[in-house]
Design goal:
This protein is of the alpha/beta class. The protein has a domain of 118 residues: ATPase, nucleotide binding domain (Nucleotidyltransferase, domain 5), CATH 3.30.420.40. It is 37% helix and 21% strand. It is built from seven helices and eleven strands. A five-stranded mixed β-sheet has the order 7-6-5-10-11, sandwiched between helices. β1 and β2 form a beta hairpin. α5 crosses α6. 40% of the residues are buried.
Length: 248
């Protein structure tokens, strides 16, 4: 029997199932005997689990960590402090994939987040943002490097190329959420990023700069986008074990 965990978000569906001991992650609905759900569009399904329970379980499994600050990035973003046996929801931000889509669509050329993210790879965010080297001479070895952001979207105008605009829109969300995570962390706490937006190229590029500046550890696990779906499957399997033990 194949059971599939489904993360049913506002803008995307992610699936995770186990077959012959192997985990498969996909965006295409698989052939399965049973589906269990999490996410805002899965909350009213017959077999569903709370979203935070699932994303925490998935992040633990993907990283092998038991304590960390979790940044779950989707249409919006949630911040959770994860402990070995529990977690605390610190709060959230309306910044996320929905913001990228809404801002980009102001140009009158509607597109989905994945297409905007792909377009942004061909853009140059330094054509949109004001950076340190625009206002002073800075050595690459300085604490604040030449390409550190001084002001987001400062250079944006009606002549900005579409790919540069996409890069700027993605960057305003990525950098803002990165800095929120830096400010929210405690001591040497690792910061783990999950959710569909965690795959943004510019997010990972800026993360490397922040790691050097702040001496912190930012973790982007493989298959981070599927943390919710994986956690949903894990929660269902754990419930099955508990019920089996209760009956035995």
């Amino acid at each position: 029997m194949i059971i599939c965990g489904v993360d049913a978000g506002l803008s995307d569906m992610k699936y995770c199932y186990r077959q012959n001991g192997e985990i498969t992650f996909t965006n295409v609905k698989p052939l399965a005997d049973m589906f269990v759900y999490t996410g805002i569009n899965g909350a009213k399904k017959e077999h569903s689990f709370p979203e935070f329970d699932c994303v925490v379980a998935g992040a633990r499994e993907l990283t092998g960590l038991s304590e960390f600050l979790l940044v779950s990035m989707g249409t919006g973003t949630a911040f959770l402090r994860v402990k070995p046996d529990d977690y605390i929801h610190l709060g959230g931000s309306g910044l996320g994939g929905g913001t990228i889509k809404g801002l980009y669509n102001l140009r009158g050329k509607p597109a989905e987040v994945r297409d905007i993210a792909e377009l942004s790879k061909r853009g140059n965010v330094n054509n949109v943002d004001l950076i340190m080297s625009d206002i002073m001479d800075v050595s690459p070895e300085s604490l604040l490097p030449p390409d550190i952001t001084v002001s987001l979207l400062y250079k944006l105008n009606d002549k900005t190329a579409g790919e540069d605009f996409a890069a700027g829109v993605c960057h305003i969300v990525a950098e803002s959420l990165l800095m929120m995570a830096v400010f929210a962390r405690l001591g040497s706490e690792k910061i783990v990023f999950t959710g569909g937006l965690s795959n943004l190229s510019i997010l990972r590029e800026k993360a490397l700069i922040l790691e050097r500046i702040h001496g912190i550890s930012l973790v982007f696990p493989e298959n981070a986008a599927y943390a919710g779906a994986l956690g949903c499957l894990i929660n269902f399997e754990n419930n099955l074990k508990e019920n089996y033990n209760d009956l035995s």
